[in-house]
Design goal:
Elements lengths: L5 E4 L4 E4 L7 E4 L2 H21 L19
Antiparallel strand pairs: 1-2, 2-3
């Protein structure tokens, strides 16, 4: 499955979350580290859902850029 990951730069680190998997988050010192950690978090999150017999949300989020005059 392919999930949308949002990565945000903070003052001292990068945070990542998955809109389709509530509670699935990660943080790293770099963009690349946050991306690596969120991939691991997604796998762990889905594994936990399976073990508990819960529904695994299908990916449905999308993203796009909108250009505006600033």
């Amino acid at each position: 499955m392919r999930y949308l990951v949002v990565i945000e730069e903070g003052p001292t680190s990068f945070g990542a979350y998955v809109p389709d998997l509530p509670g699935c988050i990660a943080a790293g010192e770099s963009h690349q580290e946050a991306l690596q950690l969120i991939q691991e978090a997604i796998e762990f999150h889905i594994e936990g859902l399976k073990e508990e017999g819960q529904y695994i949300p299908m990916p449905h989020s999308a993203s796009t850029f909108v250009e505006v005059q600033a």
